[in-house]
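P.,

For your records, the input lines for the assembly:
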Amino acid sequence: MYLVADVGGETNRQMKVKRRSSQADVPSMAMGDIAFNLLIFFVILARAQDDSHLQWQPAAAEEINAQGTAKVSVLIDNDNKYYVNGQQVGASQIAGEVDALLGDAPAGERIVLFKVHREAQALYFEPAIEAISEVGGDLVHVLEKSQD
Amino acid sequence: MRERRRNKLMVEPPSSATGDIAFNLIVFFLVCASVQPDSGRQQTLPRSEQESEEQSENIEVQLGRNTVMLNGNVLRQEDFDAALKRALTGKTRDEDRVVVVKSKADTPYYHWVTVTEMIESAGGIITIQTEEEQQVVVPGG
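Structure tokens returned:
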């Protein structure tokens, strides 16, 4: 920009004054850290929805098949507590919760993963099987391949 | 002969990229971890209204903590498979192949899974029967 100094009504001299410009860049180093923290935040948020943090040991079976993804999982942990998609529920709530999650899903898409601690007793797992069956869920026992 | 002078330049990788590399590595491992499917066994249980009324003719399996009974006879787990196959021989209709599984309250899940696997592999159709509800009338209430 040029500033013209008018001295005594007569323009006799031109003065160039440089304006200071300061560059304010966003530090690109911080971008990775921001993304990393966001990712950790969403991972923790997602973990509250699934059941990977719960304590249970699968029973063994000779023939098992890989199962596809399922909308619903019912889990009985080593303390005989019931969880539907990672959220603790009472025995009487299982049918209602599973039914609400399955909604109007057609046959074949009503898979309910049933994860039961290997030492859990019939007193606890049979009512859950009954509840899943009652609402028309396709029961899939999550098991591990037996070693022998 | 004149030897060509080598230019030794130190090229530092741009430090701004390390964050992106770390981020992509995390995403990669997260995706790998999340696509591991569960494996298990599908089981179709007849719904209560589909159960046949002639329950007395069905094969009955009773499970205890570590015992198994077939139609009231206590069997060893090794003999159960053969005995069940014999019991199912000649039964072609679905309603005849229904096996009613009754478990005592303390039956562990691993035992239940083993026995029901045997029933399914023998061609039986599993239906579970839980303990009947009992109505208790308290006198003088």
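Two observations worth noting. Helices of chain B lie at 16-34, 77-88, 109-121. The first strand of chain B starts at residue 39 and ends at 43.

Regards
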